[in-house]
Amino acid sequence: MTLRRDPITGRWIVNTEQAEQPQKAQALKEAETCPFCEGSEALTPAEIFALRPNESKPDSPGWEVRVVPSFSPALRIEGELHRRGELMYDLMNAVGAHEIVVETPEHIGNLSDLELAQIEKVVKTYALRIADLKKDERFRSVVVFKNYGGDIVRHSHSQIIATPVTPQNLKGELSGSREYYDYKERCIYCDIIKQEIKQSKRIVFEDESFIGIAPFSSRFPYEVWLLPKKHSFAFETIGEKEVSSLAVALKSILKKLQ
Ligand SMILES: [Zn+2]
Ligand SMILES: [Zn+2]
User: Fold this and answer.
1) What's residue 223's pLDDT?
2) Tell me, what DSSP letter sits at residue 47?
3) Which contacts (CB < 8 Å, 24+ apart) does range 140-143 have?
4) Ligand 2 center to residue 190 CA distance, Å?
5) 37 CA → ligand 1 middle, Å
6) CA of 152, nearest ligand number
7) Distance CA 36, CA 44 (A)
8) Ligand located closest to 108 CA
9) What's residue 22's pLDDT?
10) Distance (Å, whole) CA 171 – CA 54
11) 91 three-class SS
12) What pLDDT does 19 receive?
């Protein structure tokens, strides 16, 4: 597997040559036991991390949130990047992390149906995993994402991908914020928050710590941005109060979307 740069747009694409991956996913689809339920730990690859309040053994029951490698990873954790060229083209080995965050030991399909205390644990797990992946100098970006519907396993989970390249969208956000700052000497996100509160037209959630807005230039219907009100730039530095607030925001926004 390699990461190849599109010479025109600059976008990096994962190039897979392995055919066994769709089969693996298919086998998972047909399996009768849910691999994410408590008690089925042997059905997943060895865990990377788990919240285990009673210090139970890895890959055994007794966890609250569990992180395992993806069954069909887009990227591999081992190895060197080996950046290289092929005449005018650029490529490197597809090194990265692709993890699954199992959000509850119970067989529940949606994050919004979990108790607030459980959603807080999921948010804390994101922060811990991001902090850990950031220590790996090969990586330039860590993204947490979640698919809704069409998932192979219907047990609430999200995914984390760490890549050795910065995704195009993120690059655009970074350079746009930088340009705004160079011109105005103010943070663009802080300015957006101030204006949205003043206009009060697009707010879908607000409390002391977070604001949720339907962005002025949405890319798709029902897009929501959740922004911390306090100027901050690193998710993993999130405090206790913000964790609770984010859990409430996620639950209420996802419920509304449903
Ligand atoms: Zn399950
Ligand atoms: Zn700011």
Assistant:
1) 95
2) P
3) 140/164, 140/165, 140/166, 141/165, 141/166, 141/167, 141/170, 143/167, 143/170
4) 4
5) 4
6) 1
7) 8
8) 1
9) 58
10) 42
11) strand
12) 45
Contact 200, 176 (CB under 8 A): no
| Paired tokens of 123 | 């948010």
- Domain annotation for the chain: domains and CATH numbers: 2-166 (3.30.428.10), 170-257 (3.30.428.10)
- Looking at residue 12, its pLDDT comes to 86
Calpha distance 110→103 (Å, rounded): 9
Cα 191 to averaged position of ligand 2 atoms, centre (Å): 7
User: Quick one: tokens of 244?
Assistant: 């609770």
Number of other CB atoms surrounding residue 98 within 10 Å? 19
Look up residue 98 and give its two tokens.
Answer: 């692709």
Structure tokens at 196: 């949205």
Q: What phi and psi, each to the nearest 5 degrees, are found at residue 62? A: 105, 10
Q: For residue 181, give the ligand nearest its CA.
A: 2
Residues lower than pLDDT 70 in the chain: 17-31, 150-151
Structure tokens of 185?
């000497």
Distance CA 181, CA 94 (A): 34
